# Entry
Amino acid sequence: VTGGTGFLGRAVVARLRASGWRVRVLARRPADGAMDQVPGSLEDEDALTGLVAGVRLVVHVAGLTRARFAREFHAVNVEGAKRLGRAIRRAAPDARIVAVSSLAAREPLLSPYAASKAAGEGALLDNAASANWMVLRPSALYGPGDSATLPVFRAAKLPLVPIPRQPAARMALLHVADAAGAVIAAAQAGVTGQVWEVGDGCFAWEAIARAAGKALGREVALVPVPEPVLAAMLGLARLLAGGGSPLASPGKLAELLHGDWTCSSELLPPTHLWGPTIGLSDGFAATVSWYRLHGWL
# Structure
């Protein structure tokens, strides 16, 4: 497993071990634990070869989601995937590959991140030269321990909660435990060469904000903000951060304001293989409980 020490990766490793797999993890800073850990990163071809040598399954979770420059996304999400693919071809040619990508990969012209995820899928699979693969494109993830969606809950505590003025926009969300379950399903499915888009329904911005408020135990007063105003607000945030805030970049704004982050009905996994089990209300409630317990909210 690459990315096994990250938010999704930890959940994937736990589910794999619970399913009886012996797990080997690539780790920049190996820590104590029962799993086998290989020191290194996606930049280290020798470490990647050692990671995959002799394995039956490779789950590629590692990736860069925030960066200031396109070249940073490319270096990790594309070049790193190439190295992993070459390592698989050398040391584990018969392994099944589950590439955990992103729903953003279907919109490669939207942002540098989206472009890197789309290119990374091909970089991994082309260099591995294997037909035994699955690509998983999760929607926006959330859950206990996630810092990326924390601003949604912090915003829901405000007297007035800003949301994009996009009444027709829809997005899918997915609890991290369900995402990990989808990885297991892709690993064990009796199919190959498929792309799965995975999420839990589709929600408007208003529904997401109100669900966050409910999890916090309060009613929210929503303020729909026009796109130009949102762009100006994020531009100001980027300026105040000295141009160094990846979350306020033009690419992240484009992703935020893209009106359709729902899963394609043609790319959903068969329901007998996988389906979400944690609804938004329960998932948000558990997430808020974790944030409060750990002093994040």
Summary: The CA atoms of residues 49 and 90 lie 7 Å apart. The first strand starts at residue 24 and ends at 27.
